[in-house]
Amino acid sequence: MVTNDGADWRETRRHAVRAHAAADERRRAAEQAEAAKLVAAFVAEARQRGLATTRLVAVSHDGRHRYRTGLRGWYVDRARHRAVDVAGRFHLLTVPASLRALLFGATPEPSPPPLVIGRGGRDGESLPLEALLRRRLSAGDDWP
């Protein structure tokens, strides 16, 4: 009598892994959509309040170099590593060190905003995106 238990188990396991990955992707997409709404509301409120924009600057991953960018917007953290541009796109302003970027500037790509800034970081400090954006709005033009 030949049984197919091993093959059935593997197929069940593959199905469970695919289902788990699909559920994780749906959760991530929902979080990104919610965070994008928060960023869009921030831009609308910043414009309504007349919050001054600034030319955004990128920093090398090692922190040694600063690079011009073609972006204008608002820094949303005091370290100036996260920003929202005037088009409502969220940017992480850390880029690889590059001679080309020193000469011609850097072009950081927008990234999906996280609902929680610093989630999973080693220092254990995290902050909801909504609180970070609210803090930035309440600081007005007195942001460092």
Layout of strands and helices, then pairs:
Blueprint: H1 5-49, E1 54-60, E2 66-75, E3 82-85, E4 90-92, E5 94-95, H2 99-104, E6 116-117, E7 127-128, H3 129-139
Parallel strand pairs: 1-5
Antiparallel strand pairs: 1-2, 2-3, 3-4, 6-7
What does this protein structure show overall?
This protein has 144 residues and is an alpha+beta fold. Helix content is 43%, strand content 21%. It contains three helices and seven strands, in the order αβββββαββα. The protein has a five-stranded mixed sheet with strand order 4-3-2-1-5. Helix 1 (5-49) packs parallel to helix 3 (129-139). The radius of gyration is 21 Å and the shape is globular. The mean pLDDT is 91.
The portion of residues forming beta strands comes to: 15-25%
Extended strand count = 7
Principal-axis shape equals globular
Average pLDDT rating: 91
Largest sheet descriptor: 5 strands, mixed
Can you give the helix content as a percent range? 40-55%
Q: How many whole angstroms does the radius of gyration measure?
A: 21 Å
Distance between the termini: 76 Å
Which structural class matches the secondary elements? alpha+beta
* Helix-strand sequence: HEEEEEHEEH
Contiguous low-pLDDT stretches (5 residues minimum) are: none
Strand order of the largest sheet: 4-3-2-1-5
Q: Which features characterize this protein?
A:
144 residues; alpha+beta; five-stranded mixed β-sheet; 3 helices
Short description:
The chain has 144 residues and is of the alpha+beta class.
